[in-house]
Amino acid sequence: FQYIAEGIPAGTEIENVPDTIDRILHNYKQGLIEFAQSKRVNLARSMAKNLSVKTGKVLQQAEMKTITEELFSCQAPEVSLDGEPTVKVININKYFNHKE
After folding, report:
1. Burial of 44 from C-beta contacts in 10 A (0-12 / 13-18 / 19+)
2. 81 in Cβ contact with 45 (< 8 Å)
3. What does the pLDDT read at residue 65?
4. Residue 17 near residue 5 (C-beta atoms within 8 A)
5. Which CA distances in Å does 21 have to 31, 46, 59, 89?
């Protein structure tokens, strides 16, 4: 199976386009089996999963603000597409050896 990528979504930082497209297609096929979603929703889900900002990526203040604003403008900002929590509340005292 061969394909030609004529462009990628603006703002994405993809190091290996063929591998990314393969992962998107794999997740898309897997989503058709696991979830009862329309093809459009399933494709959006697959792209979101594969084009998201990866853990450990250093972001500028403006990027963090944009991501936060876009997250909280979603229908269900508290959970990811996989049902995982998007925000974790942590006890700051735990990191500074303070007793509660």
Report:
1. middle
2. yes
3. 94
4. yes
5. 15, 10, 24, 34
Contact between 68 and 61 under an 8 Å Cβ cutoff? The reply is no
Among 44, 4, 16, 52, residue whose Cα is nearest residue 28: 44
3-state DSSP assignment of residue 88: coil
Q: How many helices (H) and strands (E) does the chain have?
A: 3, 0
CA distance 14 to 32: 24
**What is the mean pLDDT, run by run of 10 residues, along the chain of 100 residues?**
71 73 78 71 79 85 91 87 81 74
Q: Where are the alpha helices (DSSP H) in 35-85?
A: 39-51, 61-72
Which pLDDT belongs to residue 33?
63
Per-residue pLDDT, 99? 62
Cβ neighbour number for residue 91 with a 10 Å cutoff: 9
Q: What is the pTM of this model?
A: 0.53
d(CA 40, CA 32): 11
